[in-house]
Amino acid sequence: MKLQNDIVYVFENFLKKEVCEHYLKTIKDIGYKENNLPFEERTQDITKDPIGDLVKDFLRKNIDINITLHQAQTQNWHINSFSKLHKHNHSGRENTQYNSLIYLNDDFEGGEFITDGGLILKPKQGMLTFFDGHAIKHGTNKVFKRDRKTLIFWWKEV
Fold first, then answer.
1. What are the pLDDT digits (tens) for 34-88?
2. Rounded to whole angstroms, how far apart are CA atoms 151 and 127?
């Protein structure tokens, strides 16, 4: 199935609080920084974690798409960090097309997921999103209070 490139799928309560808490413990708090830390300092690879298969199977069942996981990471958007609107078609991500996020906490201020189409999504703990990261310009509003922590998935269509 080929997705429409302007759709962001949102599945609330994908992960239970207890599972979110498990992953939260694996992500160090960063707190306030004057500037965005480099991506490499805010992420860690979890590609071999079984959560990838759980998400893949759920997406296959619920949106009828055949994907394979390229990479999974934990991610921290620390206080004062943000992301301008962008697409994931740059060097290093040219072989992935789709992205998913699982929001592990919602006790932060700011940090909304945004698109150039006008979507402003306030993350909720346990929420899963899925979208075409090559086609949809998206970003993250500035985080003002408490770190925003997620799992991010990079998918290839097969």
1. 999 999 999 999 999 999 999 999 999 999 999 999 999 999 999 999 999 999 8
2. 10
- pLDDT tens digit sequence for 93-119: 778 899 999 999 999 999 999 999 999
51: Cβ–Cβ under 8 A, 6 or more apart, which residues?
23, 72, 102, 151
Q: Return all residues near 40 (Cβ < 8 A) that are at least 6 apart.
A: none
- Report whether 132 contacts 97 (CB < 8 A): yes
Q: Phi then psi for 24, rounded to 5 degrees?
A: -55, -35
Contact predicate 20/104, CB 8 Å: yes
Positive or negative torsion for Cα 61, 63, 66, 71: negative
